Amino acid sequence: MKTRILKFLREKDGFVSGQDICRELSVSRTAVWKAVGQLREDGYEIQAVQNKGYRLLSAPDVVTEAEVASRLHTEWAGRPVVFLRETDSTNNEAKKRAEAGAGHGTLVVAERQTAGRGRRGHGWESPGGSGIWMSLILKPSFSPARASMLTLAAALAVSDGIFRETGLRTGIKWPNDLVAGGKKLCGILTEMSTEPDYINHVVVGIGINANITAFPEELRDKATSLLLEQGRPVCRAGLMAGVLEAFEKYYGEFLKTLDLSAMKETYEARLINMDREVRILDPRQEWTGTARGIDREGRLLVEPAGGQAGELRPVDSGEVSVRGVYGYV
Q: Residue 314: is the preceding peptide bond cis (ω within 30°)?
């Protein structure tokens, strides 16, 4: 009820009469009054004037089910939203719920993670009240070999969502780190449960440093936040809605070809590694070269240093890590 009334108030200009709310949502005046009271307790400023009705004046920076769901304009992404005050990892929670029957599009959101994870086993700082920690459950019918490409699609979606909400243009460090000012802003971790030729579920985890004001000393040269980059806080729920809407669009494009051909040009335009020297941290042998873009399957195409002109070697994100020759990017 809170979500429906909040969405209704948010999408209307000015006052909305209680009668209109009752008629549109098929609820009683008492139900409306109770829901408005609950929203006020949650920190929403809602003005009530006799003979005019209700008007939403301000909303707290929260990522609750009601706040996120009331901002969504998607068909399936983020439907439903599951909100947790605290969890070890939204990816872990999403995997449990997927195994228990949670459907395609279910979004798990936490205000704080106690054991957030990044790629290749790295930890992820996840303080409460200032970041976006969310995981989207997908239940696709395509081959498991195709799932890793969704990570790159998610990176594009986050980039789009950030630009829509803040106007900030971000780069992508292959395959899936969002970068601003030469520092990491967002990480994406895609995990899946499979049979030999069948996907049980895919979980796309997204961690965005939104309103974090400071980082531990060991991360200050590597990590940044939207607040630090633009000098003002961002509406976290609004950003989440933008990311989910963009991901739904890119996911639809992906399903048409089951590769990244429709996104390749857009991705390469944001690829900060493009035409730059990179180090390939392959467990078998470290080597250097120049990044020349991606192929239809999302592999980084690298021209090896000292190799033949025009020779391109595809690099798979599941096997190696890429760094700039002189640092993170």
A: no
